[in-house]
Write a structure and sequence with these properties.
Elements lengths: L6 E3 L5 E3 H26 L4 H24 L3 E3 L12 E3 L11 E8 L1 E4 L2 E4 L1 E7 L3
Parallel strand pairs: 4-8
Antiparallel strand pairs: 1-2, 3-6, 5-8, 6-7
Amino acid sequence: MGETVDSVDTSNGSPVAAEKILESHLALALESWKMSTLLLTVVSQLDVSESQKYLARARYFRKRVSDSLDEVGLRLVHLDGQPFDSGMAATALNLEDFDPTDELLVDVVIEPLVMGPSGVLHSAIVSLRKEFP
């Protein structure tokens, strides 16, 4: 395999831009996160005895995805329950439903925040709720 600066040789010998590989990993990470979130939601509605094996598998899947992303310098950032502020790398779909003085928390993460070696690769999409004392 020849040396390249901004590309990686694939098995068929054609160079693929590193940016394209990163985009592919990012897309796969987002879809994997969405699928595992859906699975966890569905499993949570099953009987406790039946749900245990599926919960373990879903958690294992999330761990494997996280480990694979770590290997290429990517990280999913979980914002669930975090205080929301306007400087956060997240788009709040329901921000206009609140007063500017309201203390807000991330209620539901629709798409996660993805960080790479040089910063934010994908901003989160979230819905918010008021923080109640």
